[in-house]
Amino acid sequence: LSEKHSLPITIAGRPASCRFQFEHDENAALLTLMTTRMLDHGFLAAGSCSLTWAHQDEHIKRYLNALDRVFLELKQAIAAGNIASQLAGPVKHSGFRRLVN
């Protein structure tokens, strides 16, 4: 999907428990926007994925369909140069920064 939407990403980790980041200066804002848009589709999704035996083909198809639509929105936000203005709140923090006032 990243290739389909021309959204370069870097993937790390194990196949069943991987994480990714966007190869973009506004990676954190893109991940934040992706998370909020995926919530709109009923998925709590961030830049990581942990698959289990409980995930059925139906779940994976629904997730990928939602992610396809969200990646299109991200591509459009990048093209318009308005990623941050699409957020309903602040950009996510990484690591323990979220615990510091």
Write the layout of secondary structure elements.
Blueprint (H helix, E strand, L loop, with lengths): L8 E6 L2 E6 L4 H14 L7 E3 L6 H24 L21
Antiparallel strand pairs: 1-2, 2-3
Helix pairs in contact: 1-2
Protein model, in words:
- With 101 residues, this protein is α+β, with helices and mostly antiparallel strands.
- Helix content is 38%, strand content 15%.
- It contains two helices and three strands.
- It has helices at 27-40, 57-80; strands spanning 9-14, 17-22, 48-50.
- The protein has a three-stranded antiparallel sheet.
- Helix 1 crosses helix 2 (57-80).
- The protein is globular.
- 15% of the residues are buried.
- The model has no long low-confidence stretch (mean pLDDT 90).
Question: Between the first and last Cα atoms, what is the distance in angstroms?
Answer: 37 Å
Biggest sheet: strands side by side, in what order? 1-2-3
Order of SSEs, N→C?
EEHEH
Mean pLDDT: 90
Number of helices: 2
Number of strands: 3
Query: What integer value in Å does the Rg equal?
Result: 14 Å
Helix content: 25-40%
Major sheet details: 3 strands, antiparallel
Q: What structural category arises from helix and sheet content?
A: alpha+beta
Shape: globular
Strand content: 5-15%
Poorly predicted runs are: none
